[in-house]
Structure formats: C-alpha cells, structure tokens
Amino acid sequence: MEIDLELINICPTFIVSQKFQPSKAWRIKRQIQELDFMDSPRQTKNTRILDLPFMRELRATIEGTIENVIQNLDKDSTNAGFKFLDSWANWYHKGEAAQVHNHPNSQFSGVVFFDDDDKLMFHRQDPWHDPMLPINMITKSNTDYYRNHTHHQISASAGTIIVFPSMLEHSTMRSDGDRVTVSFNTFLTGDFHMEGHTLQGTNLA
C-alpha cells in the first residue's frame, strides 16, 4: 500500500496593536510611578488602575481597540461586549524581565508600553512537546512564517498597546533601565455561548 500523506496546517492565532501619543504615555508613566507598588513582584497594589482619573483617555483607547476586535469577530449578536477584570502596572529595573506566562481566567489581555525600544515575546509551544521526550511537530513549510516559528518578537515604543488572546504565552526581554508597563485582563459579554455562534468558530488562542 502506498503512503501519500497530506500535511494539514492548523490553529493560527493573532494579536493586535494600537497606538496613542508618546507624549501622553510619558506623562502617564510619571503618574504611575507615584502609585504604591508591592516589593515582589513589583506591581501596583491597586489592581484596577484603569479606573483612575489620569487613565481615562488611555482606557478609552483600549476600550475602542477591543470593541473593534469584537466587531470584526462577532457577526451574530447585537449585545456583544466585554468587561475589564483587572488592570495593574509593572515596574522593571535594569536587568529584570517577565518570565514566560499566560493569563488564565481571561479571554483577551493586553500590555501598554511607556518606553521606547521595549520587547515583548510571544511563544507558541508545540502541542506535541513533552519535556521528557522532545519532538518538534511544527511544520517546515517555507511559505508560512507562522508555521515556521515557535515565537514572535514585538518591538514596542512608548504609546504602544498590544491586545492578545489571554492563553497565548508571552514574556519580556531584560530591561535596559527602568521600564513601566500596564497589563489588563478582559472577559467577553453577550450571547457568545449560543450554539452556532460565529465567535465559537474563531481561534482565539
């Protein structure tokens, strides 16, 4: 019997990027640094910082970004929306970085950058990966960047907002100096649970 395999590539994902003015980012950074931070990890004690008055314009930009994503995904309901679950600031000193992690119990998460030449790394672990018996099953097709890479680096500048599926693993590069970011988690609202809904056919992670 002749074996004639067909390679079927599956499960791409996506992230989105939005900008706001760098001058506003630098002003917000200074105000963030005046907040109370925990010692380790160096995060704000306030886990709803997007509710603060000086965050109002930034929050509106984030809301518009996520609403646009939802509008492009959802084709069935008139009540599609989202809610913020939490939001906090991270303050990294020189040489510090965020290790590989994801954001459980959330659907869309995001990071706001307040410094230039910042780096965010996304990781796509091979679903066949076993640390005891590593086998790479990611395709070697030469025509598709996504399917040739297990990670993707984003070079962000002050005023960059990145929104991504919460289960997508990510990390940061070591900081060259004091670096501040804001992270947030959200959850979709509306009738997405309905059988046959278009969003259920969208690969979010």
Topology diagram in text:
Layout: E1 16-19, H1 22-32, H2 56-73, E2 81-92, E3 108-113, E4 118-123, H3 145-148, E5 151-156, E6 160-165, E7 169-172, E8 179-189
Antiparallel strand pairs: 1-6, 2-8, 3-6, 3-8, 4-5, 4-7
Let me know the largest β-sheet.
Answer: 5 strands, antiparallel
Helical proportion, percent range? 10-25%
Strand content: 25-35%
Overall geometry comes to globular
Q: Tell how many strands the DSSP assignment holds.
A: 8
Uncertain spans: 200-205
Properties at a glance:
single chain; 205 residues; alpha+beta; 5-stranded antiparallel sheet; 3-stranded antiparallel sheet; 8 strands
Structural write-up:
The chain has helices at residues 22-32, 56-73, 145-148; strands at residues 16-19, 81-92, 108-113, 118-123, 151-156, 160-165, 169-172, 179-189. With 205 residues, it is of the alpha+beta class. The strands form two sheets. Strands 1-6-3-8-2 form a five-stranded antiparallel β-sheet.
Q: What would you say about this model in short?
A:
This protein is α+β, with helices and mostly antiparallel strands and 205 residues long. It is 16% helix and 27% strand.
